[in-house]
Every structure is written in C-alpha cells, then in structure tokens.
Amino acid sequence: MQRSAESRRCYACGSPRLLRHKELYKLSLAHIDCDAFYAAVEKRDNPELLDKPLIIGGGTRGVVSTACYLARIHGVRSAMPMFKALEACPQAVVIPPNMEKYSKVGREVRQLMRELTPAVEPLSIDEAFLDLSGTENLHKAPASFVLAKFVQRIEKEIGITISVGLSYCKFLAKIASDLNKPRGFAVIGEEEALTFLRDKPVSIIWGVGKALTAKLNSDGIRTIEQLQSTEENVLMKSYGVMGQRLYRLSRGQDTRRVEPEHEMKSISAETTFNHDLSSSDDLVPVLRALSEKVSHRLKNGEIAGHTVVLKLKTQDFKSRTRNRQLSSPTQLADRIFHTGLSLLEKELDGTKFRLLGIGVSDLSGNERADPPDLVDIEATRRAKAENAMDFLRNKFGQKAVETGYTFGKSGLGRPQTPSEHVKREEKD
After folding, report:
1. Residue 359: which domain range?
2. 387 vs 296, 307, 396, 401, CA distance in Å?
3. Which end of the chain has the lower number of beta carbons within 10 A, N or C?
4. Does one domain contain both 299 and 371?
5. Nearest in space to 159 (alpha carbons), one of 31, 47, 10, 30
6. Is 127 a catalytic residue?
7. Which of 23, 100, 108, 127 is labelled catalytic?
8. Model's pTM, two decimal places?
9. Residue 45 known to bind ligand
C-alpha cells in the first residue's frame, strides 16, 4: 500500500506490487482461493518439483484433479482426462492425490482465516468467503490491509500462495479472486460493478452452467450487457426464477450473506479403474478399501451417517446409485462395507464398471452411532475387532493392519489410481 498516488513502491515495505482503488478502505467481503492447491502443497513438500509442470491425478482412465500453472500453460485443466493432459504436456510429473495431507493443510489455512473473523464460509477444501465488516477496531486496519498481511502470512507459515478477491458482495468477490491468479489481489467496487460486468460473457454469472449458457446463446444473449438492457419480467418469463437471478446479478445485486456454518450432506470415496472391472473378486477388495477411507474420515470428524450410498459408473459412462438406510447411524467400515456389498452384489450381472464409490449421507453426531447389535453377535465382534485395528493404526500408521479383503489382492484392495479421492459434500 502507498500514500502517494505518484509512488511506484509501497512506502512501508518497498514492494512494487501496489493496489489502488477508491473503495479500498470501505470494502470488507472477500473470497480467498488457494492457487493450484494440491500442486502447491506437493511442490512445497518436494522442492525438486518447483520448476517442473505438475499434475495431480493420473491413471490412464483417471482425470486431472489439479495442475500447477506451468502445466496449465501447456493447456492442462482440471477434470481433463489424463490421456489428453499428457498429450498436451508429456513432460509433466504426475502424482496421485493425497487427500489426507491436503485436508490437513486446508484446515490450517481455515484456522488462520478464523483468526481474522468468525464469519468464514468454506466453499471447498481450498476456498472460502470471509466477511471482515466490523473488525477494523480489532485489527486496527481496514479489511484490505488485513488481507494483504494475511496473504504474506499464508506464504510464510503454510508455504503456499493464495489469491484474494475483495468486493461488496459474494458474486463479485469470487470473480475478483480469479482475475489475477496466481498470487492475485483484485478489487471490484460497487460504483464500477455495472461497467465491469458489461462486456463479460453470461457464463461468468453464478449458477449459469453449460446448458443455460447454450440456451441464452441460442436466444441471442451472449454478454451481460444484453441482460442489463432486458427488463426483469421479460427474463423471468423466459427463464423462470433463474431469470430474476440473471437480472439481479447482471447488475451486481447480490444480497447473500456469509454463512459461517455449513452442514455436510455426505462423505464418500470413489475410484476410477485403469481397466473396466466386472467380477466380485476385483470389485469387493476395492469396496472394502474405500469403506475404510470413509470410516476414517467419519471417525476423525466425530460424525456418523444413517444411509449408505453405492455409486457405480459403467463402461459407457452411465451412472448407477443405490442406497440403503440403516437402523442406526454408523461410522464403522464394517457396516459401511457389508451394506455396500449387499447393494453391489445385485449389480454384478456381467456389466463392466469403470468407477466404484461408497459413502454415507444423512449425517449426524456420533453419540448414537453403532450401538451393540444384540441380534447379530458376529457384527458386534467385528466392531470390536475394528476398534482394535483403529488403535493399532493410530499408533503405527494406517497400513499397520489390513483385512483379508484388502491384503495381497494384487493391489486392487489399495486403490492407487490418482483419480481415487474422498469427497466431503456440503449444503448450499
């Protein structure tokens, strides 16, 4: 920051990275987004990767989870099939995702966010909205100064970089954080909102996906300026409730508040196979390993799920989702696995699958999870055995004990494809 408009460097630190804006001292709603998060964490932990294009993902049938900016220069993008990513950047280093490590770093970043303000609304593992209104007395500085120091603190203490978008509403704060990545700090003020949005494509609007973009384009609407010149009732007549959102957001009108608490909907784990699988011998060990991953997350989070959900994707990309509600919430890998197994067995008709996933939904606290089963004594014994395994794993590592389902099954019981990941979904 600087005092003189003519100055080319910050008067305090001498940095040439200056930010001038007439609303800089009054704006307080920010969107913070970690830059190429998974790749940044891996480069932090392995300096040999710093100058190399890096892709997190992999497997011939997998997809790109994220790519560093060097890889993006070559055209690599998130969710791109791995074979296309390697065609675009054959020299890239490919690393499978380590969700436990990324989750740990994400929690560290979030904890530092909460030291700035209690109004933190996480959107994912690596991004969140922050509302710093009313914190000037606490920090003895406006939000923009606090965020600039926060950027430096993340780089120094966590070892990764972030980008910040500062505005008066969520919609524009999120757009701003994407403007100057990586290590970006962009501001969009209220006075300039209409002008800033005018020449942007309609696809930049929150909630406008590919289908609606195609519909708008077919109706001759391609830019936000065209929405700004259309009456609200006309848009609502053509696009229903979404028409009202188009009208308001195209004018920078967004009254959504930062909501600190989000209730999770589900926790799941899935993996995409390098080769399509159809047999029980191949699929069951994977199901067991994924059940253990989900169980591990549930136990760490002190939560439980009331419904087990099985997910399959066939070789022709058709999805199958099956679910079963339990008599009581669970966080045990054994219950998740056996429930998922009973659902999976009904699908084993020779169909080849490219993806398998298991998860739980209807989440709650773990206070009433997994009561003793007075009918199925064997299930109670397995639960005790699992608790003993957890003790050993916590003491000696996750691979200290394995079940017969996963041990020695040609690696299938330990999914290693980089597309395998744990999902933690949250309510909007």
Report:
1. 264-426
2. 11, 21, 14, 12
3. C
4. yes
5. 47
6. yes
7. 127
8. 0.67
9. no
